[in-house]
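User: structure tokens for this one?
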Amino acid sequence: MVFDNDAILSRYAPMIEFETISKAHADAENLMPFQALYAYLQAAYPLVHRHLSCEVVQGASLLYRWRGDGSSPAHPVALLAHLDVVPAGELSLWKHPPFSLTREGGYVYGRGVFDNKCQLLAQMEAVEALLKDGWSPHCDVYLCYGHNEEVLSAASGARAIVELLKSRGVRLGLVIDEGGCITDGAALGIPLRIAVIGLAEKGSADFLLTARDEGGHSSQPGPGTAVGRIARAAVAIEQNPMPARLLRTVSKTLEAAAPYMGQGAAFALSHQKALRGPLKRLLGQKRATNAMIRTTTAVTMAQGAKAPNVLPESASITVNCRILPGDTVESVRRHLCAVAGDDIEVTLLAGCEPSPQSLQDETFDLVARLAGELAPDAVVIPYLMLAGSDARHYHDICEHVYRFAPYYVDQASLASVHSANERLPETGFDAAAEFYAKLLLSYGARPPGAPLP
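Assistant:
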């Protein structure tokens, strides 16, 4: 089975043109771009849509089912991606129109080329190629594509897909979503490339903190304003982070990285119990590793008066929190209340709890082996995903939920997520499709009772 990178990119270009921007509230959604993307998929991948059933869920999410031939007792496998993208933002910052795919300087540019339509593309390519070869899966295969992953919505498409599968008694044996990738090991102090596979992910919550005052004309201020009080609350939050904790998942990450680090770091990581305090202080010095050991609380938005000569009756900040497993949305709320002070109102806007940790057994070993084949020079490392994904919903019906996108992502591409000039290296789309094809060929290919290959 041979995949052509240029041919795949030619089929990718139209996907980027659909402005599939999700909204937190269902009544504000424009579903037409999602419907147009679905129509394009039907035209671009005719065998997929001839042989797989497809249901539209929650208005725009897609649930495909490829029936297995019954040769394996394995539970079904689910490949995940999401159809939505974040808004383009300030257009003047883009080198090229955001909703078009542009190849330049060894990269492809466009909103969604990395987050996350590349995964949708590779999975469609893999299934279409397998069907062209006349292959049938050993067990059922589901393709699950949520339409509002980028927002915290009560009408989550991914959640609705999971509930639908649960109602049908479906139990999954393997789920693969975005999150990990192949990248440079600099963040962990490794001089090699790393292939990181997420075993779990942090939770997320947005809180609105509000200070209230009498208001009035700015010519007669009191000893302070609502803006001043909310500013002090923001500073207090930044100066009082939540405590650092070293989770088992993070310990596994450090243990896997230790042999490839300098002598001092390797010694500390191989003696984590004895050196727990110094190790946490060391990890807290870098943004990436600090986020691995604590619940983070980032002040991201602020609002006061509507005019410069008005004393505001209220001022507010929004705090985005990424919740370490072991903490909860409620425990984070209590922390913010204690730090901000009694005169500050703390309101939860939206939130989800951290995910459970997936099993690291022979099913994980299969994914790790294929990731290693994809990047033979990379160190395969399990990790805790710091951001959120649709994968968190699937723990209800699967013990093997992993987060890995089979692409090499350099530092420039990582920095472009949710930013202007979102990009990916233009090579490797063929290898990503081959990864998914190999995964489907390998998973479930065993007699009853035999271990996974």
